Amino acid sequence: MSASTYTPALIIIDVQNDFVSGSLAVPGGADIIGNINSLIALPGFKVKVASKDFHPPKHVSFAETHQKDLFSTLTLYHPHDEERKHGIQQVLWPVHCVQGTEGADFAPGLETSSFDTVIVKGVDPGVESYSAFQDVWGRESTELPAILKEKGITDVYLAGLATDYCVKWTAIHALEEGYKAWVVKDAVKSIRDETEAVQDLEGRGIKFVDTENLKQVLQDFNQ
């Protein structure tokens, strides 16, 4: 591989207290922090980005906001969709990753000093955002697309939480943006069935790699 055909980026998704040990803890979430740190320490990535859910109180994704049962679903519309034409089925989550709370902080043990930038998402009280690229309606983008374009990125490697939501939609949007999307299989965990999440992503054209194989890829590239 030459530099003109391979310029990788690492994106660490939502390794935050509430997703590791808090109100919306992903099973096994703490167990992958070591593997994530080993990825962060690798040379060869053109840019290393982390994302955070960063919700205001009473966010539209919270069950409490609607006085509904946890993990029930509700059809929601974008605040500017006055004719209510484009509804989505929203899972209603426990209150999580609220701005200014410990739950929104990065989890203890995560090596954050090498991040080039931190993307925050879900900051609009009326708009859900799983992906580090854009909200669920695709109306507003984060700064991530511009960062990757400016760096000439070809391949995006994803780790973090959770495989079946924020990792999934970031990977899907990476593909849509024209990047090769890779999920580091031993550096992610799913809220629900991990095998089902992996099969879903593979069916969408997203590729998987493990930490040791990725280390070898980057080592070979850097020689």
Automatic annotation (TrEMBL):
Coiled coil: none
Keywords: Hydrolase, Metal-binding, Pyridine nucleotide biosynthesis
Record domain Isochorismatase-like: where: 9-204
GO molecular function list: metal ion binding; nicotinamidase activity
EC assignment: 3.5.1.19
GO biological process, one term: pyridine nucleotide biosynthetic process
Metabolic or biological pathway, per its Swiss-Prot or TrEMBL entry: Cofactor biosynthesis; nicotinate biosynthesis; nicotinate from nicotinamide: step 1/1
Family note: Belongs to the isochorismatase family.
Protein name: nicotinamidase
Organism (species): Crepidotus variabilis
